[in-house]
Amino acid sequence: MPAPLKVLFVASECAPFAKTGGLADVAGALPKDLRALGIDVRVVMPLYAGMPWNELEVLDGFMTVPMWWGGARARVRVGQLPGSEVPLYCLEYNRYFDRPYLYGPPAEGYADNLERFTFLSRGSLELCKALGFFPDVIHCNDWQTALVPVYVNTTEWMQPLHAAATIYSIHNLAYQGVFDGGGMFITGLGREHYNPNELEHFGAMNLTKGALHHSTLLGTVSPTYAREIQTGTYGCGLDGVMSQRSGDTIGILNGIDTDEWNPATDRHLPARFDATDLSGKAVCKAALQKEAGFPQRPDVPVFGIVGRLTPQKGFDVLAHALDRILSWDVQIILLGTGDTDAENFFAWADAHRGDRFRAWLRFDNGRAHRIEAGADFFLMPSRFEPCGLNQMYSLRYGTLPVVRATGGLVDTVKNYDETTGGGTGFMFNDLSPDALANTIGWAVSTWYDRQDHIDAMRRRGMVEDFSWARAARDYEAMYHRAYQRRRGHAFG
Ligand code: ADP
User: CA nearest 341: which of 362, 316, 320?
Assistant: First the structure.
């Protein structure tokens, strides 16, 4: 049997062990499907406080990670991604990672984050050497791992790891790992790498920029986001570099956890349903209306909203359109936490328009499921959206997404066509209160005037394939392309 492709997957978070966002879901799910394709993939991450330390096996001995101040002696603990045989290596270095937060208290970063994630990046490569595992491809994710492709090309020059192709996946370009240029010594890289073609960007050290230059191929979590970040509007200052490498950038839509989010088996719901029988959805709607304290009317359209209340999600625009939207016969249920201003506004709206607007300002997974199942429409007026998961959950739950045409939303939702009844949701382009209200109005009028179209759209969305298995096949092709580019010949 030919040797399998060897892939090291480096991430700063991985579900269910440590999670702040979608990156953790990718790291916890994609490797399992890659393994099912026969790839020898292994995941490496830091060992944080709060992880199940005692369930992980402690490997013999210590690993020495070169740091600016000397060698950091780190232990390695190994486990597996739940329900799989994918090895998960956790780098144990308590001075950096045994802390209450992954990156720092809310809205702050730890002062030594550059040092912490230099350790992760350098430590991942030292781990390979310690294990004798020399990957064909190293898959890095977001700025915390951005130094890996730089090290592969520099400190590993003429060493076995230099042969590895590197892939840098962008989950959210808004976070780039920007530090004072004076901190270059912390990376262990010579000052000569502090230039506009590597790590220097407008007078600061930008780790993402280093990865964009040094990686064999670049990835994003949706095809549309891959194109958008080559423009000034979405590129967060790195659009120039992204355009230079447009031919090497591949957008692959994230999958969703189709076991956790399955209306036919969902344990959070009062009734279950599928595309062939939607009667359970009506039960979920009535229960949701009751939970929200609304009249249990099947005829009124219910709009659901779940998400972080941050500028990325565009809820400030919703705030400006809310009066107009609430002048119609609709019910809106919002579940979210985030910026204080946004929370205060929606609490106020709840207090004043409680007859048709409910705001639950907390994190509640069960409620997120019940909203996805019980609502008729799901609102995502995102300013930018690298991929987005909620709209995929909505489609699977027969809840029509009303979205702004950006990023992964464009790649997952097909706009309604009134003449044919085609599509799976409603879309608008301008991020303005008028455009948002008009599109919600369009959804509402379709609800009242063309129920047959609503039904057909629901069923269409429910049977679409958003599985990780699909994404994994695309990543496998990307790994092979990266290998070919790095080595000059095909794998195998
Ligand atoms: P992002 O990763 O940008 O926050 P996504 O749509 O990709 O947005 O994923 C958000 C995830 O977090 C979804 O699984 C969503 O259900 C969940 N979520 C966000 N806010 C809440 C909340 N207040 N309660 C429960 N789940 C939430």
Answer: 316
Closest Cα to atom 24 of ligand 1: 363
Count each helix (H run) and each strand (E run) in the chain, helices first. Answer: 17, 19
The ligand 1 atom at the shortest distance from the C-alpha of residue 337 is: 23
The stretch 272-276 carries a mean pLDDT of 97
Mean pLDDT of 314-326: 97
Which atom, in ligand 1's list, is nearest to the CA of 336?
23
Q: Which atom of ligand 1 approaches the CA of 362 most closely?
A: 23
Pocket residue to mutate for ligand 1, from 268, 390, 399, 412, most atoms within 8 A of Cβ: 390
User: What SS3 state is found at 13?
Assistant: coil
Which residue from 275, 4, 56, 48 is spatially nearest to 144, judged by alpha carbons? 48
Q: How many CB atoms lie within 10 A of CB 171?
A: 24
Predicted pLDDT at 164: 98
Query: How much distance in Å is there from the Cα of 257 to the middle of ligand 1?
Result: 13
The 8-class DSSP code of residue 8 comes to E
- How far apart, in whole angstroms, are the C-alpha atoms of residue 361 and residue 367? 11
What distance in angstroms lies between residue 453's CA and the mean position of ligand 1's atoms? Answer: 28
Taking the centre of ligand 1 as the mean of its atom positions, its distance from the CA of residue 306, in whole angstroms, is 6
Q: Which helix (H) or strand (E) holds 201?
A: strand 200-201
Question: Mean pLDDT throughout 466-472?
Answer: 95
Q: 4 preceded by cis ω (within 30°)? A: no
Distance, in Å, from the CA atom of 397 to the CA atom of 489, rounded to the nearest integer, reads: 45
Q: How far is the CA of 455 from the centre of ligand 1 (A)?
A: 26
- Rounded Cα distance between 405 and 414, Å, is 10
Burial class of residue 233 (count of CB atoms within 10 Å of its CB; 0-12, 13-18, 19+): exposed
The DSSP result for 135-192, as a single string, is -SEEEEESGGGTHHHHHHHTTTTTSGGGG-EEEEEES-TT---EE-GGGHHHHT--GG
Strand partners, 70: 67
Mean per-residue pLDDT for 78-104? 97
- The closest residue, in CA terms, to atom 20 on ligand 1 is 307
DSSP type of residue 25: H
CA 165 to chain centre: 23
DSSP assignments along 103-117, one per residue: SSSTT---TTHHHHH
CB-defined site of ligand 1, < 6 Å: 21-22, 306-308, 335-337, 363-365, 368, 388-390
Residue found by looking up tokens 């991985």 in the block:
14
